[in-house]
Design goal:
The complex is a heterodimer. Chain A is an alpha/beta fold. Chain A is built from 16 helices and 17 strands. In chain A, strand 10 and strand 11 form a beta hairpin. The longest helix of chain A is centred in the N-terminal third of the chain and has 19 residues. The two termini of chain A are 31 Å apart. Chain B is of the alpha/beta class. Chain B contains five helices and twelve strands. In chain B, the strands form two sheets. A six-stranded mixed beta sheet of chain B has the order 2-1-3-4-12-11. In chain B, strands 5, 6, 7, 8, 9 and 10 form a six-stranded mixed beta sheet that branches. The longest helix of chain B is centred in the first third of the chain and has 21 residues. Chain B is globular. At the A-B interface, helix 14 of A face helix 1, strand 7 and helix 5 of B.
């Protein structure tokens, strides 16, 4: 380890110490300065650590937590960026905080969530043993650009680490195209035909035309969005058979799901302790990652049964008489999945939706018009009240009005403390769907009100 | 009464919540007891534009542009030019707006021929013109104050044959230089304000609806609606966007 690297490590550790004294997270800033001093610091630190990195548009955090649960339960020595700081700076900070001054990392494994735009710079340094790509959807156009641009970022990152095993979503034509021209070995996960009823082809799809030859795809079935059994009638690019497959969705409950997986030919009953269809995708991706990291299928399956995600992803709070769930929404695909989850709620409930337009949310809120809020009208008789909040509460109110909910039923409440005090007096279950920075603020107030932990403690 | 709305290329030009504009047009008709039918016209499908009263074309990704141009040059371009001259009402946004012009020239000088229905052209630039912005529509376009979000790197320049839709009050507009935003020609409304342009700007929405209804029925007075939610969101953004 050279002197520059040692100085960078020292600087990073000092800055983190100061941050914590000031009661700040210090999850990304220390690494940012350390990298200025030693740009390849992460590469030096990560070279002897067996790393699994998780990237993609939706489900990164949840999948990383599922994988991490398996490492924890198996008693493995590992580090993880669970604070959510998932750019080069945050990942570097995490490695530094687990290393000696001489740059020796004291953990055998790392479970890393990586921002899809940052993959370009992170993967070359991190050289993960396994990379999971959960899916690719349109997301914050002002920040990430077009979805094909995000795909290029991930591709460029993987080019620098040809030995990495890819765990790809077989059902996502964008994601699985990564294996078409990269030399990396690849395995696939997905939901097999017939495992769940096929959806209607959505009016709005993020990948209608073949990524290779631009011919319109044909579908045998759709699990959601553009995910499913796709096939290009012109060049033949089509869904790859899944090595890790959900072969039957047996139960979809409000608290979790039970599915049958087919793992390289072996049938396995799996309980996923988290509701909603999209978490079944996260679960099967996690099984692939944990197994390919060498921990075995059983470690993965046990982890899924006991796993709690928290941090705004289906996180529960003891608020009001019947409790509250916080469900982060960031883009149309994720938002649609949350609305679909609400359709399965049988009793009347209170819906809180919060929209911010800060940097991390995307400053362009147009995406709310791509999300299927019309789905709310199908459960209108079960929606006790709708409360909109956040910096752009006004836009959300208009969106929900045009979806077909009577404007008189929509209440604007921008003060989270006031909102939480009112919700706490309510009898009915509460479902909250905030965007990222709204979730951070809302969650902080909920933690103050109900108890819980700060974000960097996860 | 009924307006027949056509959403052109919804399969590829649907980048920024464009569907919001269609929902807004239809809802504001239905709330007044006027029927609205919607026809989606994806790539490869043909229909006579004369069968419609209002055509919407939105913005899209670069990825599909080639597919789109091939489809246009198979005859739809001619049909669109004729429909524009015939007075059909169009609302075109971002990529759809650029497409109605003569051509797009990339910053390295490659020229792509567009429909040529409007006297305007677009030149690619290295700056991304992005953010919330506001403009005031010209008197011939209702004169309302519009708030929106723009995200484009192409700079559009208007020829003498078209009027701007409005004048920029804050933000970039057509090119960030001459203060114009969008274009107006006959019954065509073109703008860079993408996605949910109409829901927060009910005055402009009603102006466009009136234009289409007048062409079809001769005269038309739209009944007023309770726009308190729409105007609250509008005013909130007006205050947020300074300059």
């Amino acid at each position: 380890m050279n002197l520059r690297a040692i100085l960078a490590i020292l600087l990073c550790k000092c800055l983190r110490g100061i941050s914590r004294l000031l009661h700040r997270g210090g999850t990304a800033m220390p690494g940012r300065y350390a990298l200025k001093l030693c740009p390849n610091l992460l590469e030096l630190l990560a070279k002897d650590v067996k790393t699994v990195a998780i990237t993609g548009t939706n489900g990164k955090t949840t999948s990383a937590r599922m994988v991490e649960e398996a490492f924890a339960k198996e008693g493995k020595s590992y580090l993880s960026n669970r604070s959510g700081a998932n750019l080069l700076s945050g990942i570097t900070t995490e490695f530094v905080m687990n290393s000696s001054l001489s740059g020796k990392v004291n953990k055998e494994y790392a479970v890393i969530e990586c921002d899809e735009a940052a993959a370009r710079t992170v993967f070359g340094q991190l050289k993960p043993k396994v990379v999971v790509v959960t899916n690719l959807f349109r997301d914050q156009l002002d920040r990430y650009g077009e979805v094909t641009h995000t795909l290029e970022n991930i591709h460029a990152g993987l080019e620098k680490t040809p030995g990495t095993l890819l765990c790809l979503n077989a059902d996502c034509s964008l994601t699985s195209s990564l294996a078409l021209d990269l030399p990396n070995p690849a395995v696939y996960f997905g939901i097999d035909p017939g495992a769940a009823p096929s959806r209607e082809k959505p009016a709005l799809s993020d990948a209608t035309h073949c990524i290779r030859c631009k011919t319109e795809y044909e579908y045998d079935y759709i699990s959601y969005g553009h995910l499913g059994g796709f096939r290009c009638p012109h060049c033949g690019y089509s869904r790859h058979a899944a090595d890790y497959a959900v072969s039957d969705v047996l139960e979809l409950r409000g608290s979790g799901s039970r599915v049958l997986m087919n793992i390289r030919g072996e049938k396995q009953l799996v309980d996923v302790n988290l509701p909603a269809m999209y978490n079944i995708y996260n679960a099967v991706g996690a099984v692939a990652a944990v197994t390919e990291m060498g921990l075995g299928v059983k470690a993965a399956v046990d982890a899924l049964a006991s796993f709690h995600c928290g941090f705004g992803r289906m996180e529960e709070f003891p608020l009001g008489k019947a409790g509250a769930r916080v469900m982060l929404v960031k883009n149309p695909a994720g938002c649609n999945q949350v609305i679909e989850f609400l359709q399965d709620i049988r009793e009347p409930f209170i819906l809180v939706a919060c929209l911010n337009d800060r940097g991390a949310d995307g400053t362009d809120i147009s995406w709310i018009w791509d999300a299927d809020f019309e789905g709310l009208t199908k459960m209108a008789e079960r929606i006790d009240s709708v409360i909109v909040s956040g910096d752009r509460a006004g836009d959300l109110r208009v969106r929900i009005k045009y979806a077909g909910i009577d404007d008189k039923q929509i209440r604007v409440e921008r003060d989270y403390e006031k909102l939480i005090r009112w919700l706490d007096t309510q009898e009915k279950p509460i479902y909250m769907m905030p965007t990222y920075t709204a979730m951070l603020e809302l969650r902080q107030k909920l933690v103050q009100h109900c108890g819980g932990t700060d974000f960097w403690e996860g | 009464m009924e307006l027949r709305i056509c959403h052109m290329y919804p399969d590829v030009l649907n980048l920024y919540g464009d569907g919001g504009n269609i929902r807004c047009l239809s809802q504001r008709l239905r709330w007044r007891g006027i029927d609205a039918s919607l026809t989606r016209l994806p790539i490869g499908e043909t229909a006579h534009l004369a069968e419609f009263d209002l055509v919407f074309i939105g913005g899209g990704q670069d990825f599909e542009q080639q597919v789109l141009l091939e489809d246009l040059h198979r005859g739809k371009d001619r049909e669109i030019r004729a429909a524009v001259e015939d007075g059909l009402t169009f609302l075109t946004i971002c990529g759809g707006y650029q497409m109605l012009g003569s051509y797009y020239e990339t910053h390295d000088g490659q020229r792509c021929d567009f429909i040529g229905a409007l006297d305007l052209y677009t030149v690619g630039s290295h700056t991304r013109m992005i953010g919330n912005y506001k403009f005031r529509c010209g008197p011939a376009s209702g004169g309302s104050l519009v708030v929106g979000f723009e995200n484009h790197s192409g700079k559009t320049w208007l020829g003498p044959g078209v009027e701007p839709l409005g004048q920029v009050l804050a933000g970039f507009g057509n090119n960030g230089e001459d203060g114009t935003e969008g274009a107006r020609y006959r019954n065509v409304f073109g703008t860079y304000s993408h996605g949910p342009l109409l829901p927060k700007n009910p005055e402009l929405c009603d102006y466009i609806l009136t234009t289409a209804l007048r062409r079809k029925y001769g005269s038309c007075e739209l009944a007023p609606l309770d726009d308190s939610a729409e105007l609250a969101a509008h005013d909130e953004m007006c205050e947020k966007i300074h300059k």
